[in-house]
Amino acid sequence: MNRSLNFTSIPAKKENRVSKFFKNIGHFFVNLGVGIKNFFVNFIKRFIDGSVGTKLSHFIFGAGNLYHKQFVKGFIFLGLQILFWVFMIVSPRVNGEPYGFQALANLTMQGTEGSFDPISGEMIGKSESYLMLLFGIVTIAIIILYIIVWLLNISSSYKADQDRNKGLSASTFKKDCSDLLDSKFHILMLTPTSLAALIFTLLPTIYMISIAFTSWNAVDMAARNTNLFHWVGFDNFVQMFSTSSSTQLGLEISHRFFPVLGWTFIWAIFATFTCYFGGILLAILINKKGIKGKKIFRTIFILTIAIPQFISLLACRNLLSEWGPLNAILKDFGWIQSSIAFLGRGAGANENLAKVMVIIINMWLGIPYTMLMTSGILMNIPSDLYEAATVDGASKAKMFFKITLPYVIFVTTPYLISSFVGNINSFNTIFLLTEGYPQHLPYVGGGTDLLVTWLYSLTITNKQYNTGAVIGILTFIITATITLVTYRRSKAYKEEDTFQ
């Protein structure tokens, strides 16, 4: 009877989780719809209730501010509107490619190859697809900023209306500037940061995502004898997972994707947990009572942090290379006849050996970080927990697994998650040690390549930008999903203010 109850309770629990998931999705779209509805309702209400100046502000920037004699603010808004339309209509050109409305039209990627001018010896009227895509995206971003300024202009006029209805005078430009240094100081500080994030983070990300839906790679463009690329939809994503591609390039990509993805996860797991638990054990050993020379041991391990990582990695690569000191010593002792390819380079390279070596070298670099962090945590564990456990007759091993390890994991869960995600994108360690070797000819992508180093080889070396963009998107989806799911399910998130 009890067994039947247990078996029926498990699916019920799973069903509740699934139903909760879909309910959350439903609530999200409902809230989104309500938010959009409220926005338009308030927008229409503001137009109806607003003054003549507010109504005009919907068409002429700054009209409402000028109506309320806020001349500086009104002329700033009006100037921004004039600059926008000049930008869109006059269509300034950079390297022959236009901005403005023409840039939006060029997003169709219907460029021209141009014609050869025998006098100047240059191509005339030649389109550059990458500039057409870039300028089109920048123009869209400027249009979005224009819409934001438009809404701010209306809100500013409507606020002046409300102040007038309350018997107050409209705020002056000087008063607005003083508010930016006082009650609205957060706006003053966050606006430059937001603009910088838009220019240097968001726009490049959107550009990279857009490339994933184009045919921008040297192989395709050389086959068509053109410098132009075009939109291909989801073909690049299909090619990534298809094992029956019609092109040689497609077969190369699909045959290497899953091996590279699998090794990326294996590397991330071993690189994370070997350094994590190795650092914990090392911290316990160094902080153990009765150990002499603690400062000396800490200093020795901290040296790996003090020395720049790329220097340590290059030194290890030279030591373990085919003609390096280690192979020379082994030959001198007569233990080997030919060099061992520790890092996947040279004759008889073994992929598994190279993978093991990069994990071991990474432990040398990563364990000291965890040791330092864990040392501080161990000093803050309440001593009365160990005293109570000793009185109850608990062994040292049991105290470690019941007190020390849970406490450390509880505090360091965010670090553990970020370390795992960082190892998925660990470019330096793999590239500086093995550069992805041993190679799997004729495929692009070596035996020790991670997704991020494979992306580098595809884009920088082989000019396959569209495939690299697809890998970048998939890497982001993987890391973002792992981060969100694991952190939200961790005890550090659910019980951040307590420890039991």
Q: What this model shows, in words?
A:
- The strands form 2 sheets. The chain has a two-stranded antiparallel sheet with strand order 1-2.
- It folds into 2 domains: 162 residues, no CATH class; 252 residues, MetI-like fold, CATH 1.10.3720.10.
- It contains 21 helices and 4 strands.
- The protein is an all-alpha fold and 500 residues long.
- Helix 4 packs antiparallel against helix 6, helix 11 runs parallel beside helix 15 and helix 13 packs parallel to helix 18.
What are the salient characteristics of this protein?
two-stranded antiparallel sheet, mainly alpha, MetI-like fold, 4 strands, 71% helix, 500 residues, two-stranded antiparallel ribbon, single chain
Biggest sheet overview: 2 strands, antiparallel
Give the termini distance in whole angstroms: 34 Å
Q: Order of strands side by side in the largest beta sheet?
A: 1-2
Secondary-structure-based class equals: mainly alpha
TL;DR of this structure?
The protein is mainly α and 500 residues long.
Topology:
Blueprint: H1 2-49, H2 52-57, H3 63-67, H4 71-90, E1 93-94, E2 97-98, H5 100-105, E3 115-117, E4 122-124, H6 129-165, H7 173-180, H8 185-211, H9 218-223, H10 235-241, H11 248-286, H12 294-306, H13 309-319, H14 325-332, H15 351-379, H16 383-391, H17 396-424, H18 427-433, H19 451-461, H20 465-489, H21 491-494
Antiparallel strand pairs: 1-2, 3-4
